[in-house]
Amino acid sequence: MIRAAFSRLKPVRRIGLLLSFLILIQSMVRAQQADPPPAGAETAVKESDGAPSGTATQALDSQNRQECGSDTGIACALQEENDIAQWLQRSPSVGAVDGSGLVELGRDLRRKSWLELGTIGGYDSALLDQQGLSSGFFGGLGSVAQSFSSARSEFLLQDAFTAINYSGGGGALEVLNTFSGALNTRLNQTSTLEVNGLTSYGNDSLRAIAPAVQQPVGITSGVPPGDAVFGLHTGDVLTANAAVSLKHQSSELSSWSYSANNSYLRYFDDGLIQNTLTGEIDYERTASRSIAYGFYGIGVRQSGNISCVSGGGGASISFRPTRNLQVDGKAGPVLGNGNTCGHALQVISSASISLRATRQTTFFVSADHQPNNGTLPQAIWTTSISTGIQHAFNSRLQAGAGYAYTLGQANPQEYTAQYFGANIHLMLGRKFWEDASVRHYSRTGFEAVPGETVFVATLWWSPWSTGEKRQNRSGR
Questions:
Q1: What is the pLDDT of residues 352-381, one digit of tens each?
Q2: CA-CA distance, 390 to 398, in Å (whole number)?
Q3: Does residue 252 carry a pLDDT above 90?
Q4: How far is CA 460 from CA 52, 201, 436, 464, 474, in A?
Q5: How far apart are CA 276 and CA 380, in angstroms?
């Protein structure tokens, strides 16, 4: 099937893909001969969704400068806090829209602006959500980031686009654009305001191909469970998420947090709309250098295809015995009412384990059971799990794998979606890098295609030198 799809590509595109793959193979061989990180150096690899890399965010990542003191990339020595109180008071991180990792806002952003461009090519076994309609594709992508900072505030804007032309399906040209904004400001010595938003618009099939935004998971970052539902619907999709949080440090050992989050998802061709508004109050207290616990109250209002109002509360705990391991848990009962609520009592819960196993290897696993936040418009509640591993062979070559699974409950119907991906990232020089990945999607309960496999190869370029900055990707 792959051979047939490749044969249908135009000669120019065949040559372009072959050259890209040859460069990747040749550089991998050279990378294996590169010197490993020096003894005693700490690998600064984080977990992520592993989407095609891009060093825009790595250049903007202030933690690299603050912790390492210089642009030494993967061989830099981390200076993380052992005290969980300091860890819990850390500045917020937001996902990079180019898929390269997380950006920590609370420290000086090393570069005020960044630009990167790339070419992308590959193969999709189920073009535009249609079983048996396979196609090769070729296109371009890029991202830009701009930061603003003052003595008390940091503000970051990001935008990324992916434009794909499929050789099958009538040669359709599809575009996906993702925009992100994040603000962190210290109101006074004890209070901090955080505001962030993320929105994307374009053909849903491109979400299975384009760089994906990752989420923080403890001391790492990881594959969002929602990645499993990418490519489920035909036509365009609009997703938007906005969050605001006010944190108040009431004492050296305790803090309060007041937050609101709104998630919106709309599939235009299928007429599916889901909006979820969540409000939460959290109290957190440090019990020792490695343990913190807390209590929370939560209210959730779902509207659209599913209408439900839920409320409840529970307890949370964080355990960080060393700087290389963190365990988080949160659970409590929730009561719901509404014509389509489908439940009177549920237990909302989440848990995660993040581990830096060695200087070169990181791992995470996370799971949750919560009211549907728009991931599956048909479901009232979702149960999700995601996991990933990342290994750095040396300062130029990294590989990773990730898995995500989501179960949606809409009595009596159940929906499942899962995703598995593996990727390789390779630095080709100071201004060029390449990513190759294989991604497989499978679903049940939907009218959509039950299975889809995508192969993606991306060659990136930036007018500024990337050096050998840390890479943040895992499985996508």
A1: 999 999 888 999 999 999 888 777 767 888
A2: 7
A3: no
A4: 9, 22, 11, 12, 18
A5: 11
- As a three-state string, the secondary structure of the chain is CHHHHHHCCCHHHHHHHHHHHHHHHHHHHHHHCCCCCCCCCCCCCCCCCCCCCCCHHHHHCHHHHHHHCCCCHHHCCCCCCCCHHHHHCCCCEEECCCCCCEEECCCCCCCCEEEEEEEEEEEECCHHHCCCCCEEEEEEEEEEEEEEECCCEEEEEEEEEEEEEECCCCCCEEEEEEEEEEEEEECCCCEEEEEEEEEEEEEHHHHHCCCCCCEEECCEEECCHHHHHCCCCCCEEEEEEEEEEEEECCCCCEEEEEEEEEEEEEECCCCEEEEEEEEEEEEEEECCCCEEEEEEEEEEEEEECCCEEEEEEEEEEEEEEECCEEEEEEEEEEEEECCCCCCCEEEEEEEEEEECCCCCEEEEEEEEEEECCCCCCCCCEEEEEEEEEEEECCCCEEEEEEEEEEEEEECCEEEEEEEEEEEEEEECCCCEEEEEEEEEEEEECCCCCCEEEEEEEEEEECCCCCCCCCCCCCCC
Which pLDDT band holds residue 191 (cuts at 50, 70, 90)?
A: very high
Q: At CA 393, angle to CA 389 and CA 397, rounded to 5?
A: 95
Q: Would you say 304 and 274 are in contact if contact means Cβ atoms under 8 Å apart? A: yes
pLDDT for residue 417 is more than 70: yes
Question: Helix or strand or coil: residue 74?
Answer: helix
Q: What is the pLDDT of residue 108?
A: 46
Domains and CATH numbers, the chain: 2-461 (2.40.160)
Pairing status of strand 413-427 against strand 432-444: antiparallel
The number of CA neighbours under 13 Å toward the Cβ of 392 is: 31
Beta bridge partners of 165: 138, 173
How does 92-119 read in b/e, with b if 16+ C-beta sit within 10 Å?
bbbbbbbbbbbbbbbbebbbeebebebb
Report the pLDDT value the prediction gives residue 367, as an integer from 0 to 100. 94
Q: What is the pLDDT of residue 132?
A: 56
Q: Model confidence at 47, in pLDDT bands (50, 70, 90)?
A: very low
Written as six digits, the tokens of 469 are: 């900055």
74-78, 118-122, 177-181, 441-445: least confident range:
74-78
Instruction: Please report where in the chains the tokens 């850390």 appear, as a residue.
Output: 90
User: What is the pLDDT of the chain when averaged over all its residues?
Assistant: 78
Determine the Cα–Cα distance for residues 337 and 332; give it in Å rounded to an integer. 17
